[in-house]
Amino acid sequence: MRGKAVSGKAIFVLCVATFLAGSLFSSRTWNLHPDITSDGRGVNHDCDHKRKLVETNTRDIMGEVKKTHVAIQSLEKTISALEMELAVSRTSRSGSKTTAEGSDSLKKAFVVIGINTAFSSRKRRDSLRETWMPKGDELKKVEKEKGIILRFVIGHSATPGGVLDRAIDDEEAEYKDFLRLNHVEGYHELSTKTRIYFSTAFSIWDAEFYVKVDDDVHLNLGTLATTLARHRSKPRVYIGCMKSGPVLSRKGVKYHEPEFWKFGEEGNKYFRHATGQIYAISKDLAAYISINSESCIDMPMRMCL
Questions:
Q1: DSSP 282
Q2: Beta-carbon contacts of residue 91 (< 8 Å; ≥ 6 apart)
Q3: What pLDDT, in 10s, does the model give residues 229-239?
Q4: Rounded Cα–Cα distance for residues 278 and 283 (Å)
Q5: pLDDT digits (tens, 9 = 90+) for 160-171
């Protein structure tokens, strides 16, 4: 049995209806999945948004950390300046009290020059005595007329009273040009030795300046005195070299800093500090070192000067 033939008009209407139905279905599917691109790949806008928020928050946090670090450094500088002012004030009051009580006053001087030396440096000391450093009556004359005190600075050996100490005793008896410190000599204790020298000299002489110089340096006393005189009226004077350098945190390298973490982030630098074979400080700086000497026992010289 043959069916009834379908007209062309009906076929056309059916095609249009099918097309419209397909278009409607596709539109709804697209709206239900807006994160699907034309090539079939998914785009997770929510994850992108969260990642951007995390990155922004991280940058904000790092910025705040940096600001805090700068603020702490500024605060430390302010505290250091206030401590120095307090130390100078204490020294002034202490000096006034001593005078009022009629105690023996310190020996007056223009400058105390401490020549840092060691037990093994006899030839160096003899070289200085034969060149620029006065000896005997000339040494006394320079002290009396110019107010310039010159002393070789040395502590004692690990075995007090031993051969090394007796050799220095004999040399002192001959030349009278040593300042003995309550300090055990050692290469790794040079910063401590310098600090003790300033404190000791400050307790013996009331000088305008205190100089530290190594025993392999030849001085022109006239030029040194003239240079120091130009700075007499200035407070808290330091004359000499300053340096800074990286804090070495890696173990095994030369000059490794065991407490590197105290100086900030890895790769940080030391703040500028006194260094070199010769430098001079004024009375108020020597007072600061003397008063704070006990609290600086375990600290390098750069932390106190």
A1: E
A2: 284, 287, 288, 290, 291
A3: 999 999 889 99
A4: 17
A5: 889 999 999 999
